[in-house]
Design brief:
The chain has 8 helices and 10 strands. The protein is an alpha/beta fold. It folds into 2 domains: 95 residues, Alpha-Beta Plaits (2-Layer Sandwich), CATH 3.30.70.20; 129 residues, Rossmann fold, CATH 3.40.50. The strands form 4 sheets. The chain has a 4-stranded parallel sheet. A two-stranded antiparallel sheet has the order 1-4. Strand 2 and strand 3 form a beta hairpin. Helix 2 packs antiparallel against helix 3 and helix 7 runs parallel beside helix 8. The N and C termini lie far apart (41 Å). About 2% of the residues have low confidence.
Length: 250
């Protein structure tokens, strides 16, 4: 069967082992100093390991492969790592449940799509005013279709960027529809699927990626590039790297 599964560029792999420790299913091992997919049917294809790779050696591809076997994976983890490893794997799998099917526990309308009017002259002249034009902004909460996507310039930003870079609204958010997320702490597989759906179903003109200089943030760039490729569209992508001191590096 053809499905999404991890692939590793051995030439880029530096053997750090971050992906191995992040893979809760035990599908990856270090062999002769290189990360290796040792059990295809243990890989769920969600790519949680990608955000931990500092060299960009990992990516998700769609190819013929054995299907993910969750029962065999649990049995392997129980024998080799114990019950705690099985529990952690089950928790990781829960993260990949379709987010839009879940109700927010507080019952608040936090995911209701809203267009924020920013045409006030007073706001446009005020450098301290918010430039945000859409709600929600967190990638998990974004709807797949909304009016603010049409012919939009989309900014996809690591959420630390706004806290690090002074004037982030004026420099990056102004004139853009915004999507934010953390490639280290959040579900990157679900991010990629949501962004692929948004790009496929809407008329996005351009994409800007704002990411931090830390290695894990490179995962955001890779998952956006994967989403563009999977959407089948030719959308121009601009990348901006921000330093932890707030400077725009490139």
């Amino acid at each position: 069967m053809k499905r999404k599964i991890i692939t590793i560029d051995k030439a880029l792999c530096d053997g750090c082992g971050n992906c191995v420790s992040t893979c809760s299913e035990g599908a990856l091992q270090l062999i002769e100093g290189k990360a290796t997919l040792v059990k295809e049917d243990f890989c769920d294809g969600f790519g949680d390991c990608i955000g931990e790779c500092p060299t960009g050696a990992l990516k998700i591809e769609e190819r013929d492969s054995k299907p993910f076997d969750i029962d065999a994976t649990k049995e392997y983890l129980l024998k080799t790592r114990g019950e705690e490893a099985v529990r952690q794997m089950e928790e990781a799998q829960k993260k990949h449940e379709p987010h839009e099917a879940k109700k927010l526990p507080c019952g608040c309308p936090g995911s209701l799509a809203q267009v924020i009017d920013r045409v006030s002259p007073a706001e446009s002249d005020d450098k301290s005013a918010s430039c945000l034009r859409n709600w929600p902004v967190q990638i998990h909460l974004l709807p797949q279709t909304a009016p603010y996507y049409q012919k939009a310039d989309l900014l996809i930003a690591a959420d630390c960027c706004a806290y690090s870079c002074a004037g982030f609204h004026q420099k990056f958010i102004k004139g853009h529809t915004v999507a934010i997320g953390c490639p280290k702490l959040d579900n990157t597989g679900a991010y990629r699927e949501k962004l692929t759906a948004i790009l496929s179903q809407n008329d996005i003109k351009t994409i800007s990626i704002a990411f931090m200089e830390v290695p894990c943030c490179a995962g955001l760039v890779r998952l956006v590039e994967d989403a563009v490729a999977e959407s089948g569209k030719q959308i121009p992508v601009k990348k901006s790297k921000i330093g932890i001191k707030g400077q725009i590096i490139c």
